[in-house]
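Q: Please design a sequence for this.
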């Protein structure tokens, strides 16, 4: 996760997130190819998501799960303060060291659904925590007509 100070204006954080998406590291691009398009047990992740004064590397809104790729230059004190702030917002952070992502991707990737399951059991649901324990978020039926991404311009 990259981010600013707790007093950073919202537009500055959004602009920073956009810039980080354009300059993703090799590790972030590698992990993104595994997470994008609901490839991992149907979990929908977004990358470089502004959250308060911080920018999360990857975030699953349905489960309140942030995934952070930790490179060699990380300040444990700053990371702990960031994690406390995110926990106060009701979010859970899963930190994955870069060397583990490249070295043992399958075992590292297996931690993500486990963390989502644990996070889901903490989220309040209609009937308490057990109501949200499924990894599959509520989504519309995929047999519906897909959303048009571009306006039709009168072409045949």
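A: Design:
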């Amino acid at each position: 996760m990259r981010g600013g100070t707790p007093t950073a204006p919202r537009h500055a954080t959004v602009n920073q997130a956009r810039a980080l998406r354009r300059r993703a590291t090799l590790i972030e691009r590698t992990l993104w190819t595994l997470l994008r398009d609901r490839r991992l047990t149907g979990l929908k992740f977004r990358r470089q998501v502004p959250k308060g004064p911080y920018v999360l590397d990857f975030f699953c809104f349905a489960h309140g799960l942030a995934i952070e790729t930790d490179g060699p230059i990380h300040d444990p004190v700053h990371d702990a303060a960031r994690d406390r702030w995110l926990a106060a917002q009701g979010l859970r952070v899963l930190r994955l060291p870069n060397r583990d992502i490249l070295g043992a991707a399958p075992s590292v990737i297996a931690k993500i659904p486990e963390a989502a399951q644990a996070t889901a059991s903490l989220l309040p649901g209609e009937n308490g925590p057990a109501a949200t324990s499924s990894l599959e978020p509520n989504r519309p039926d995929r047999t519906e007509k897909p959303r048009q991404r571009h306006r039709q311009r009168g072409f045949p």
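Q: Thanks. Anything notable?
A: DSSP finds five helices and five strands in the chain. The longest strand covers residues 54-60.
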